[in-house]
């Protein structure tokens, strides 16, 4: 979820306990309400909410597993998955003025009573249009490559695609796929920079506060239905002030037509 340089470490073959799911959901809510909170302040909030046995080490471990860092430049929580496969951040001081110029991709954690689910989404930075997403109960690189392939087949390849430095985005499969588009440049958030991927982070924040934390889906099927409904409304009914309250879809398609 945030612009960060950590990798997920959730075991795929071990079912989490109900307590672990509840604690991680609480951490997730605290983080989205107070993005600047680090380990110590999140632990203090957990204590206030009744999770009295949470020490800093366990909070830090859970945050690493959820790929959460606080929303300011600082030390990253774990090593990058593949330091040789990282790329510079290309968006600093870049004027983004058209669709398909820059896409941002990221993954966010969703806790349900039946285990963990992960949402991978791609947003067009200019229009805020969600060009692709997928839901999975495992953190595999193929869920990232699949959603990118589908988006490119539908809308064409972007000029730049930005991500964090997590393991899915420094994998050979991801790098090779982006390079196969020939004209697409790879951009990655600076190490520990939690604001470099702000477009997708704002979408995840809205998604969680406006749907996830209100509906609390219990199964993957419910998560998929909720997400499909929310993204459809976000793309086609939610106006943005910067575009005189035009929807992301209207801005995206109008400008794509002008560029054609």
From TrEMBL:
PROSITE patterns to which the protein is assigned, alphabetical: INTEGRASE
Domain spans labelled Integrase catalytic: 95-256
Molecular-function GO terms, alphabetical: nucleic acid binding
GO annotation, biological process: DNA integration
Source taxon at top rank: Bacteria
Pfam family, one: HTH_21
Role this protein plays: Involved in the transposition of the insertion sequence.
PANTHER family in alphabetical order: TRANSPOSASE INSF FOR INSERTION SEQUENCE IS3B-RELATED, TRANSPOSASE INSO FOR INSERTION SEQUENCE ELEMENT IS911B-RELATED
Protein's recorded name: Integrase core domain protein
Organism lineage: Bacteria, Bacillati, Bacillota, Clostridia, Eubacteriales
